[in-house]
Specification:
mainly alpha, 8 helices, transmembrane
Length: 171
C-alpha cells in the first residue's frame, strides 16, 4: 500500500522558508530582487507572522503535489484508480517487483529540477512579462523556486515508509 509520508511533506514544506531567508537576504539577491520587484524597505516592514504561516501551508500543498511528480508508484496506483483492492494480479506483481524503484533523493531532485525548468520558469516568466518585470526579476525568482523544489522533491522521494518506519535511501 502506498503510504503518504507526512513527515517528509512537513520537512519539505519548511525548505522554501529556509531557502527564502538565504536567497532573498540583502547580501545575496534580496537587494536586487527588491529593486526589480519595485519594493522598498518601508513596504517590506510590518507583521510577517501571517505571511510565514500561510507560506508554510502553501508550501505543504506544493510538497504534497511533488509526491506525484517524483514518486512513480503514485502513477502506478493511479492506473488502478487509486484503490489497490480493485487491482488485477498484474498490478500486485508489478508493485512487488518495482515497489521501491527509483526512490532516492537524487531521483526526486532530478524530477523536481525538470519541473522547475519546464513548469516553474514558464509560469514565472509569463507573469513577469505581463507585470512588465525584468528578466533579472524572472531569473532570480525562477532560480529560487527551481532550487527550492529540487531539494523538496529529493526529500519527498528519498524519505519513504516501510512497515511504519521511515527510511532515507542511500542511493
Amino acid at each position: 500500500m502506498m503510504q503518504i509520508n507526512f513527515w517528509a511533506i512537513l520537512v519539505a514544506a519548511i525548505v522554501p522558508l529556509i531557502m527564502g531567508f538565504i536567497w532573498y537576504h540583502p547580501k545575496i539577491f534580496g537587494t536586487v530582487w527588491m529593486r526589480e520587484a519595485g519594493l522598498s524597505e518601508d513596504k517590506m516592514q510590518g507583521q510577517m507572522i501571517g505571511v510565514f504561516i500561510f507560506s508554510l501551508i502553501l508550501s505543504a500543498l506544493m510538497a504534497f503535489f511533488l509526491q506525484m511528480v517524483t514518486i512513480h508508484q503514485f502513477g502506478a496506483m493511479g492506473m488502478v484508480g487509486g484503490d489497490e483492492m480493485n487491482a488485477k494480479d498484474s498490478y500486485t506483481a508489478f508493485m512487488k517487483d518495482y515497489g521501491m524503484a527509483y526512490r532516492s533523493f537524487g531521483h526526486g531532485a532530478l524530477h523536481s529540477f525538470m519541473a522547475g525548468i519546464f513548469f516553474v520558469f514558464p509560469l514565472i516568466a509569463i507573469n513577469a512579462m505581463f507585470e512588465r518585470k525584468s528578466w533579472k526579476y524572472t531569473m532570480i525568482n525562477t532560480a529560487y523556486w527551481t532550487i527550492t523544489i529540487t531539494i523538496m522533491g529529493g526529500i519527498i522521494c528519498g524519505w519513504y515508509a516501510v512497515d511504519g518506519f521511515y527510511w532515507v535511501t542511500q542511493k
